[in-house]
Design goal:
CATH topology: Rossmann fold
Strand order of the largest sheet: 3-2-1-4-5
Structural class: alpha/beta
Largest sheet: 5 strands, parallel
CATH architecture: 3-Layer(aba) Sandwich
Strand content: 15-25%
Number of domains: 1
Helix content: 40-55%
Number of strands: 5
Distance between the termini: 50 Å
Low-confidence stretches: none
CATH class: Alpha Beta
CATH superfamily: HUPs
Shape: globular
């Protein structure tokens, strides 16, 4: 089995659910790349650089985790990085259909790369970056949902 895995996402912003998945994957694999998607097709709050910086600050204590920016097809990026596993987080059953379709598509494109689904702690299973941004933009307290660096960045970005 390949010893390197990739956990890719928009991370706009990174939540404690994301961080929990990173920590779980980092225990399984000696090398984990957290790949921040450059062009998301989504309306993002944070720039590419800001998202990479926030993820780096959030995972700084994990010595076997590297954070990169990537663009393009994930399976091609995984091959270029020498990774044999893609990590995907599943929060709730509602995530399953999309993630299942993506995993099957990736398997067809790259049969040599496996997809491993990890669930965050139950405490974080409801979290989404979209909900965190919405609550924060309306002045709600999101300190229980995001790492400290992300909380500070949200506060600065959404200052009214």
């Amino acid at each position: 089995m390949n010893q390197k895995a990739i956990y890719a996402g928009t991370f706009d912003p990174m939540t404690l659910g994301h961080l929990d998945v990173v920590e779980r994957a980092a225990k399984i694999f000696p090398e984990l790349v957290v790949a921040v998607v450059a062009e998301t097709g989504k309306n993002v709050l944070f720039s590419q650089k800001e998202r990479v910086d926030l993820v780096k600050k959030s995972v700084k204590g994990l010595t076997n985790v590297k954070v990169t920016l990537f663009d393009g097809l994930l399976v091609e990026y995984a091959r270029a990085q020498g990774a044999g596993v893609l990590i995907r987080g599943l929060r709730a059953f509602s995530d399953f259909e999309y993630e299942f379709q993506m995993a099957l598509t990736n398997r067809r494109l790259a049969p040599d790369i496996e997809t491993l689904f990890l669930m965050p702690k139950q405490d974080y299973s409801f979290l989404s970056s979209t909900n965190v941004k919405q609550v924060a933009s309306l002045g709600g307290d999101v300190s229980e949902f995001v790492p400290p660096a992300v909380l500070a960045a949200l506060t600065r970005k959404l200052k009214r």
